[in-house]
Automatic annotation (TrEMBL):
<dbReference type="InterPro" id="IPR000182">
    <property type="entry name" value="GNAT_dom"/>
</dbReference>
<feature type="domain" description="N-acetyltransferase">
    <location>
        <begin position="4"/>
        <end position="163"/>
    </location>
</feature>
<dbReference type="InterPro" id="IPR050832">
    <property type="entry name" value="Bact_Acetyltransf"/>
</dbReference>
<keyword id="KW-0012">Acyltransferase</keyword>
<dbReference type="InterPro" id="IPR016181">
    <property type="entry name" value="Acyl_CoA_acyltransferase"/>
</dbReference>
<dbReference type="Pfam" id="PF00583">
    <property type="entry name" value="Acetyltransf_1"/>
</dbReference>
<protein>
    <submittedName>
        <fullName>GNAT family N-acetyltransferase</fullName>
    </submittedName>
</protein>
<keyword id="KW-0808">Transferase</keyword>
Length: 170
């Protein structure tokens, strides 16, 4: 058996990243809602080619992608050090219980430290007790924060109703 290997994904890994992203969707929203692989691959390739902050790390076991971390380094952060924000951490069902999630978190911590970042932030759904226990077991501290979301498919933050002088100064 090949040892676990984790690395930053490159553009040639886009099919593996897309397959893992689709596995996340299938896990959380099911096949009725999850997007097909083609638009998933297109999104992954676009995010990898642009200069946006999205990065992906893949965990391979026996040469097959079994773990995924979607993350970004955000700055400025505390004392300008920045932080690493984890958007998704996922391990394929058949690979769970083999410390792959923990290995991905250690890899993310090393990656963040190498770039001068001093913390990792992430969120979980309120009812995802397994993920919460996992992060707390690794030493994460629960924060007293309120999480907000703007749903841009509705009529929020459209710019309508903004005073003209506000638009000019922005």
């Amino acid at each position: 058996m090949l040892p676990l290997h984790i690395r930053l994904a490159a553009i040639e890994d886009a099919p593996d990243v897309a397959a893992m992203v689709r596995a996340v969707d299938l896990h959380y929203v099911g096949p009725e809602v999850a997007r097909p692989i083609e638009p998933t691959l297109a999104m992954v390739e676009q995010s990898m080619r642009e200069t946006e902050g999205t990065r992906y790390a893949l965990a391979f076991l026996d040469g097959r992608a079994v773990g995924l971390a979607c993350f970004a380094i955000l700055r400025p952060g505390f004392r300008l050090s920045g932080l690493l924000f984890v958007k998704e951490l996922f391990v394929a069902e058949e690979a769970r219980g083999r410390t792959i999630g923990e290995a991905l978190m250690h890899w993310l911590a090393d990656h963040a430290r190498e770039r001068g970042a001093t913390r990792i932030d992430l969120t979980t759904d309120a009812g995802n007790y397994g993920a919460q226990a996992f992060y707390e077991r690794l030493g994460a501290t629960r924060q007293d924060k309120v999480f907000y979301r703007f749903n841009l498919s509705s009529d929020v933050l459209t710019g309508e109703g903004i005073r003209q002088d506000t638009q000019e100064s922005a």
